[in-house]
Amino acid sequence: MNGELVSGPETLGEEELGANRRDFLTDVRDNRLASDPYWVSRMPDWSKVEVPFLSAGNWGGQGLHPRGNFEGFMRAAAPEKWLEVHGIEHWTHFYTDYGLAIQKRFFGHFLKGPARCGLVPCLPRLAGQETDNPR
After folding, report:
1. What is the mean pLDDT of the chain?
2. What is the pTM of this model?
3. pLDDT value of position 134
4. What residues have CB less than 8 Å from 98, skipping those under 6 apart?
5. Which of 12, 104, 122, 129 fits 117 for a cystine, CB–CB 3.0-4.6 Å?
6. CA 114 – CA 93 distance, rounded (Å)
7. Under a CB-based contact definition with an 8 Å cutoff, are residues 129 and 87 in contact?
């Protein structure tokens, strides 16, 4: 908490910010296919994702969200990547003790080193929960 914006110092004036804004509903209506340049320009280039990452998805959400988790996990070039999938809502597990423990293991492994995260192996490559039996 230092009084600064989390996005860094303000660099654009209101007029320039306004000129950069888009009407999302119009954009969706005008670009209906995923192959339209509008959408393609917003898709990640997974071949460039080479840093370790942890993706957490949930079985209980809309089909769009788990698909993004699975696609990212499968397509990313990163040799060290982890996918965790849980039931119920996304926040029920990922932002409570269960999810925080996974996040701490992940960051402990990559920021402090494998020997300091307390588990061997520190992280399973895939982790999940049954949808009717969350732990």
Report:
1. 79
2. 0.65
3. 47
4. 86, 135
5. 122
6. 24
7. yes
